[in-house]
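quick one before i forget lol
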Amino acid sequence: MNLLVSMGIQSSSGNNKKCDKAVLKLIHWESGQELKSLEYISPPESYPGSGDMLFKAGSIYGDTFVVPTDTELLFISLKDFIILKHITLPSFNDLHHSTVYNGKVYVVNTGLEIIQTFDLEGYLLDEFNTTEEPTWERFDKSVDYRKVESTKPLKTHSNYIFFLDDGSCWVTRLHQKDAMCMDDPTKKIDLNVSEGGPHDGKVVGDFIYFTMTDGQIVIVNWRTLKVEETINLAQIDNRKVIGKMHLGWCRGIHIDGSSAYVGFTRLRSSLSLEYIRWVKYIANPLNSRIVEYDLEKKKLIKELELDMHKIAGIDSDNGDIGAKRNNG
């Protein structure tokens, strides 16, 4: 199986919080061989004020991978890893995820805490707020937010969009520890199961597989919106450690049968409250990596280290494998 991994290369300047190149890799999982790769740096007009250059979580749409950086939306050919289209707006800040559904592109704009929709040509269609406060009363439309380092503290820290079979659009919200329906904000999935908050949510069959940033997988029946199972990955990790272990910042997930391929970012120093709560684990942090777990047998199968890299998302370029493909 081939895995598509979006990430960034850590800065060579010694700043352990930043990446200076966005990287997309196609990896043959069984051999660990890198089949294709693309390195990318934003042009000056859209280079992020945060100074962090990486590909976030994207999605496969036909023969194209649609993926954001902090301040751009890129359409990349999966055939030859060439950038086909580039979209950027002054409102883009800390984009986290993009996907295509029913001919519309959905972008999670974490910095402004909105979901933005576009047509396939890149024209902005609509915006949906993930907080209760109107977006443009809170933010100034005259500001180029691509050049703003951070809009934190955030109220929701929205991360990832997914769609259910009824067509409803949902977004994970880190601070609320939930997933909220954008079509009916009164509908929510309670994910308050641990210290961490939800990052990604992948729909596979009757279930949604959520990653929690502290290394849990929460499996929810999308028909009932109730948690069916919570799996603590640290408890099934086969490392011999003394006391409690933190696996890293848990982000991307790809499901294939009973296997879950999970992406972890190496814990680094940060002012983030989530990191502060976990500071006792940072002395000897585990490296950034992808890990395959058997969720039925509760067993670690294999891992591939991506040291000095920051993982944002995982997907598969095999059309019949893993999470449900987006509708064209």
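fyi DSSP finds three helices and 24 strands in the chain.
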